């Protein structure tokens, strides 16, 4: 059971007071007043860039467990806006024009937006039924009027990506992350950014072998901020959600680059050295292409914040392709089923689901990853579920609990912004 410290209670209470009356508003610099430290903390943001992030941003009033009074679409079907023709739920997709299209169903006319164009925009059937139901009537004008949010600091306006409830989760998350970095970097936090690998860098393969650190942790500077912004804005979608494999490789990123100083796992084997290019995440033996370890001192704190909209898949540590899977073959002797919770870690389904994320998070919090330092160095993991279902929320909560982090659920851009502020303040 996760225990909330008095400091956390105080921070949450003050933050709640600060945000009261500003629901559905962007975070500001004042919201992060608690982020103060003598030795700047290291924070890796693991941003889910799976294709499900092309879902439309849900309105804050939508209840994903409710039953709308419109039933034109199947509540549990995922529809794709991807072509030209009439709306046809029986066909399994919304065959729309590439541009936004007005449609009349359930005695209401609404516009179904396609902000991901030329990529597909995804809609859950339940959300479409809500959109065409009486429950959305009070919000129809809000959704259609396309109020442009102010761009993040030093950023130009970005068109559809700043239009609330008319943008994809991917566009929304990028805007929120840029906003948060604009606020937090001047306060001294050392940020880095991790993404899922693009399988296209491994021809013939559809398994990205997790994620990699695309932007190294570094002291705040204009150059580092520019690097973070460029990577966030240019991030491309992939199909899979390899959360466990990603967290494992992020863990090795914090370790020493000296082989003799690498820690050993539960089976006595040394962890693999982090040996991946910042540019692509591909394996390399060229030291100058590998980001240096970010640990500066024994009193420094280290965190990973995971933002995801779904449960893991393609996450079984199966070493395919082998060149970006250092340590995957010996994962069982490094961490494996470290958190013995009785679950079946690899159910054996077609999408290669695995439930190692909580095992890795607990190991990272319990074990010293820098034996070359005088005191134990550990990591805490914070999780943010973006429009996730109940079972995924429960799992992400457990991941945070076992690693002394916190879990937050976000439905839209405003709640995601507040979740990130909460995590950073804590």
Helix content: 10-25%
- Structure class: alpha/beta
Low-confidence stretches are 1-25
How many H/I helical runs? 10
**Main beta-sheet strand count, sense and barrel state:** 6 strands, mixed
Number of β-strand runs: 12
Percentage beta strand: 5-15%
Describe, in plain words, how this protein is organized in 3D.
This protein is an alpha/beta fold. It is built from ten helices and twelve strands. The protein has a six-stranded mixed beta sheet, with helices on both faces. A two-stranded antiparallel sheet has the order 2-7. Helix 9 links the parallel strand 11 (380-386) and strand 12 (407-410). Helix 8 packs parallel to helix 9 (390-402). The two termini are 18 Å apart. The model is unreliable at 1-25 (pLDDT under 50).
Summary keywords:
single chain, 426 residues, 10 helices
What's the layout of helices and strands?
Elements: H1 6-19, E1 42-47, E2 78-81, E3 87-88, E4 93-94, E5 101-105, E6 108-112, E7 121-124, H2 125-131, H3 140-144, H4 169-184, E8 190-196, E9 211-215, H5 222-234, H6 243-253, E10 302-308, H7 331-334, H8 357-366, E11 380-386, H9 390-402, E12 407-410, H10 413-425
Parallel strand pairs: 1-8, 1-10, 10-11, 11-12
Antiparallel strand pairs: 2-7, 3-4, 5-6, 8-9
Helix pairs in contact: 4-5, 4-10, 6-8, 8-9
